Amino acid sequence: MSWVGRSIRRVEDPTLLRGVGMFVGDIGGAAAVRFVRSPVASGLIRAVRGPAYTIEDLDADGVGNIEAVLHRPDYVRLAQPLLARERVRYVGEPVAVVVGDTAAEAEDLAEQVELDIEPLPAAVGIDGALAPGAPLVHPDESDSNVMVAGEMATPGLAEALDRAHAVVDLEIVSGRQAALPLEARGSHAVTERFGGRTTLHASIQAPHMVRTVICDLLGMPEADLRVVAPDVGGAFGQKLPLAREDAIVVWLSRRLGRPVAWIEDRSENLMASWHSREQRYRLRAGFDAEAHLESLQADVVANVGAWPCYPITWGVEPLMALAELPGPYTPEHYGVRSRGVASHTCPMSPYRGVSRPAITLALERLMDIAAPRLGLDPVEIRRRNLQSDFPHTSPTGLRHDEGTYREAMELAVRHVDLGAFRSRQHVARAAGGPQPGIGICTFSERTGYGTPAFAARAMGVTPGYENVELSMDPSGYVTVRIGASPHGQGLETALSQIVADEVGTDPGRVRVVASDTDRTPYGWGSFASRAMVLAGGATYLAAQQLATKLGSLAAEALEAAADDIVLADGRATVAGTSVGVDIAELARIAHHHTQRLPAGATPGLSVQAGYDPAGTFSNACHVAEVDVDPDTGGVSVRRFVVVEDAGRLINPMIVDGQIRGGVVQGIANALLEEIVYDEDGNILTTSLMDYLPPTVAEIPDIEILHLETLSDATVTGAKGVGEGGTIGAPAAVLNAVNDALAHLGVELNEMPATPERVRAAVRSATGTPAGPTN
Amino acid sequence: MTEISPADEAVPVVLRVNGTDRRIAAEPRRTLADALREDCGLTGTHLGCEHGVCGACTVLLDGEPVRSCLLFAVQAQGAEIRTVEGLADDDGTLHPLQEAFWRHHGLQCGFCTPGFLMLSAGVLETRPDIGDEELREALSSNLCRCTGYQTIVEAVRSVRDAAGA
Ligand code: FES
Ligand code: FES
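# FE2/S2 (inorganic) cluster complex -> structure
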């Protein structure tokens, strides 16, 4: 029986359950670092007084600037200092740094630091940043706030829109949100007194990349910096880019010759870690008489904040929108302008799904709005438009491998029993009070892409591949060293299942080593729903090599043909016989009796493999049922169904966990969570009293059904699944809210759909006065 | 009249944690969470917000779940404090709740887990036959960003049901 496909318990869990995990804040024994941050959105730094280090100290030490680069003519290149130089550009930007013996002392020292800043007008929000004469965020480098502007159009778009049977215009807006890992960021650095080698423990997603950029900044060889991501308390993209703070922690530990640690507090995390998702999409869509989406034109703006993020840059949101907007649909004509606009707000990093939640919201609102105008229901219009010929090449050249777009929707609709829901809805309409609504969302999730996809972005550094080193030790246990950096996804468990199948052992005899640059091959870490596909693929290839080695050892020992050897249950046997040898015995031979190896064979049992695929598309259909109270604007999610096709499921329990967690973040994105700035650029949401992640009270159980299309685009047949939940849920929920209020003529295309926004939409549709009526 | 020591002067404090007396010196402003983590070396109690919302710091104080980031160490003197490190048996056998969280995949990154374990231990010990609705309500006082909660609820329900069976 194979281990792949089984929901075995996670090897990661016992440590965490006992409370003996090691998160950055648990290391201790270090002086406390605290950053002094800008209290204003924009201003000129006149002086910094007090017991603090500033950019002058970094400059004097020759510390470099961060350069997050895309090689494209429309991209504004910047050199970002590790602490603010001359100007501050957002509330929370680090200006100075203090070191105290204890956290309390560091806090006291920080309070003694006086920032003399001359405030300047700030550009806040998309419109504020684009307005003529808007304050410029980088006036020396650019005479506008547009930092990246991608544009493309297929020939004949305008004519296609002109001759369309029906044209639908639509604007959707996504509010600014934060990934909000429950453990905020943090880092801890120790420099050896002799030799001067530094070890950085940091709560991050990509340790090798962080080592490279910090060494570049500090002008040190990478061999002298070890970067470890210990247990990481959630990340969701927020811990992917280089944190300026982490580089400074390394610099301080080397300069002061003492261990130092920075543990971010929650208000810093909400104010000055990374934000995401503030976007606006304007679509014009042309449908033919059969309701096929024939032409699609889009204008996309992403508010990307004050600085780019390294290495992904601030092109990540707008350019993903440009490349992936057609989604699961097949418009023949497509044109788009997509801009990243700087503002005096916190910088952006990719957050679970990146632009796809907003892309999907735009497309799925489009389908629901177009359907009645074309005399169809939401299911039928999708049925006519979803991809069904594979591989499908999108207007931007993306190759979609085989998926189950229509099948997933049909199954979801059957599962929820749409007909029964409509009868209930009919009754509720007559009765008044809270109104039920149902929303469908179909989407594709681009996952598991390697170097080819990143190379197309023309980044200053091109991520992509993953390497794996795999060895069996003399006791017959397998160690898998990976460049990916799991932090809660259960990758160690899933990889051990793959290895166990290939080399005929038990997952309990497999150890995965990750997240430590001293002990793992160079790799790109865990992000973009890639680890299972890439690290999993490389592990699979390496395990096959190891199996081949074991097979030839066994053939030698058993005097059989290598092709006849079967590895299973810890034994190598000659097929069809009971003649065999323990795999552990073969491991002994390979290390301790190498005189018995075939001539020319390398001693030991070590192999390595890399994997670098072009990418694959998972797909899913989400259906949300909500109740909306038109009087209060309150929305509650009653039911949520997911039909997911993520290819082969290595560990179904872990896959479902990824989907559930993602859906819940997506529901929160749709209804609750929003980072708010006032018009001067002051941030108003700096605690969990103002920024509202959901509790179990706001969340229904998530029903999950699977389809399993084995991808030919990956060696394991698995597709990525980390982000899908968050991508689909906002559109499903917003469609459901709109469906609930359709009889009132409400159209609400902005997330989060807070009670205020729902009430405003009801008021503007019905002309009723402000305020609850009950 | 009691002598009030200045807030930044350490005073001797005895904390009874998982059945053992811990003698520490703590400033009156030191939170119970910091005292457990830094003075007692019990870092299983996590800090997710330090303002009383997330519940990652939940410990049991005389059997009641409390947010240790909102209490001062001196306030916990004389009480029985229980933390995640005290849940498993001395021989290492996992507590039924730990087993259930493992079996039901009630954790991903594990950062919220100690808080949820202590919260549910407190709830089930004081209300062993708590109903489904009330249980959901009780568990809504803590935040998890990874699991979507469903598997946490299932884990705790399974322990309740097994105890009642
Ligand atoms: S850390 Fe105590 S409630 Fe969040
Ligand atoms: S498991 Fe990560 S916060 Fe709950």
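# post-check
Residues B 47-50, 52-57, 67, 69 surround FE2/S2 (inorganic) cluster (ligand 1) (CB under 6 Å).
Chain A has 21 helices and 28 strands.
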